[in-house]
Amino acid sequence: MIGRALHWRLPRTLYARVALILVIGLALTQGASFWLTLTERDNATTDVMMGYVEREVASSVALLDHLPASERADWLPRLARRTYRFILGPGETGAPPDARLSARMAESIEAGIGRKYPVSVNTIPDSREHLQVHLKLTDGAPLTIDVLPMSSIPISPWLPFTLALQLAVIVACSWLAVRLATRPLQQLAKAADALGPDLKGERLPEKGPSEVARAARAFNSMQERIAGYMAERIQILAAISHDLQTPITRMRLRVETMDDQVQGARLQRDLAEMETLVKEGLAYARTMHGVNEDIHRTDLHALLESLVYDYVDTGAAVSLDAHESVTIATRPNALRRLIGNLVDNALKFAGQAAIEMRHDHVNHVVISVLDRGPGISPEALEAVFEPFYREETSRNRATGGTGLGLAIARQLALALNATLTLENREGGGLEARVVLNAA
Predict the structure, then answer these.
(1) Alpha carbon of 321 to those of 63, 105, 354, 366: distances in Å?
(2) Does this model's pTM top 0.90?
(3) Among 151, 122, 148, 150, which Cα is nearest to 134's?
(4) Element (H, E) at 356
(5) Domain 293-437 falls under CATH 3.30.565.10
(6) Domains of the chain: which residue ranges?
(7) DSSP assignment of 337-354
(8) Which burial class, exposed, middle or buried, applies to 402 when counting CB atoms under 10 A from its CB (0-12, 13-18, 19+)?
């Protein structure tokens, strides 16, 4: 449970996580080192102070003992120190000292003067450690040593600023180290995202640490191998398409000379379907290889309006609902072909199509192709984008479909850095939604 909560609280990026862990680790290490240094400093200071107190108190008591009673009061301010002072009198009574520092201070004073002057020690109620050592001088006069043990030496006022500067240097060095360590990963992710269907991504620089250079070389080699495989695949499909044209043409000529007109018409339809299948298969392969068209600033309203006019001129029932003019950077021919494929699909299964365009003002433009056809079962809404997939209730040989129209449309959407989804409409029909990046 704690591990899960910690996981959700960590930053999402590797850069932030590594930087955070590094900064926290170094800060904790610095804090521990500072604490150990202060502890050792206080212990060493205490040891020095105890030896100093033992000698100084013994000397001061001996001096006061040799002075006349009338002169002792004048010497008290001179003999006072930061941690103790002398009082001519019996002082206050109390319990024996129990604090470690007070007990050690009492032992040091007793060690210095206890052999000649019997002493008694007690604590004084106070907000801090406070004790008094009582003794009598040789003339019987009472003398009290009022002691305020100092647990540690005050910290210099410049020390916090120095620690803050050190922490700032640690944070800056951690940021730089993590940035240098994670930059190759960012470049690799960027190159992978830029590798579109055209397989023309930028090569990564093969430099830097050995691990980074090796990963860059592997990624560049992978791009080249994939591009080679795709080029070989297209070449094979192109050769098959070209070679199939000749036997199909011969078969058509032979069908035309057949006496049986009914069978001849059926064979003509089969040959036309074969030719369509070959052409669309080649078109799908080329689409997967990418779109070589350059990107241009395009008025979407004008593009869609021109597309609709072309359909209307052929007698197709296609309408446009796009009142707002939007201009984006895209590949216009590829986009026209994408929307055309969706319109053809709608006309094939519904006999009519409606195109709608809206700008959601969040750097996205949504183009929808609507129809009132039979729709698609919910479980097949994603499967229909697979090549040669046909749904029995809406796609069959009688419609002339090859199962490649939506697959080509999906590949075109990927080449345009857009998303294509299908959704059944209320009341029947299908909506094909294309979301374009308008930034």
Answers:
(1) 110, 94, 8, 12
(2) no
(3) 122
(4) strand 352-359
(5) yes
(6) 1-194, 200-290, 293-437
(7) HHHHHHHHHHHHHHSEEE
(8) buried
